[in-house]
């Protein structure tokens, strides 16, 4: 059985949805690294301080039920707004932020039996992971899923706007200088455009075993 699983891919590919299910089925811990970049962004937005100053004095904790804590305060919901999504992609360009979060992520993965998702897990954070997945889907399909999710929660949503925001985040995450979104050479490419969640989960479980 593979003890450390890395899942990377663009925004909205289904990484967190499938990683959570795989973690539950294997009895592994799921680590959402995007939530950590989001917490940094929230603190920058709320405090008005520089990214450098915030990074020097911040405590981020993820609990096993998926709750996110910023300096002891639960921010699980606050970090999911479009403003924080954009902010997370912005702070993720900074070397100081990446260094700090990468160290934290490696500590969290040290005991094994983890599935960690993000953008640079297979390439930078856990290059020795036992299994690496690069999960992607067409931008139309990713926008469609995000749109359906928002509609279900009764939030106002505009499909073209969502597609634009996803494309912008993809571009920014793939073109940044430090640890850009990229498929590790030894990662298995999974295109979920025409797959169900269960099909993706089944394929990852097969590869893990
Ligand atoms: O996975 P997510 O959408 O919650 O991530 C939010 C942003 O954080 C994403 O646009 C880029 C950044 N990120 C990153 O640079 N590296 C990671 N390992 C995870 C997220």
Walkthrough of the structure:
This protein is α/β, with parallel strands linked by helices and 209 residues long. 51% of the residues lie in helices and 15% in strands. It has a single domain, classed as P-loop containing nucleotide triphosphate hydrolases (Rossmann fold, 3-Layer(aba) Sandwich), CATH 3.40.50.300. Helix 4 packs parallel to helix 8. The termini are close together. Bound molecules: 2'-deoxycytidine-5'-monophosphate (DC). 2'-deoxycytidine-5'-monophosphate (DC) binds at residues 11, 33-34, 37-38, 88-89, 92, 118-121, 169, 173. The site of 2'-deoxycytidine-5'-monophosphate (DC) has 14 residues, from helix 2, helix 4 and helix 8.
Describe the secondary structure blueprint for this structure.
Elements: E1 4-8, H1 15-26, E2 29-32, H2 33-47, H3 51-56, E3 60-62, E4 68-70, E5 73-74, H4 82-91, H5 95-109, E6 114-118, H6 121-125, E7 131-136, H7 139-152, H8 159-175, E8 188-191, H9 197-208
Parallel strand pairs: 1-6, 1-7, 2-6, 7-8
Antiparallel strand pairs: 3-4, 4-5
Helix pairs in contact: 1-9, 2-4, 4-8, 7-8
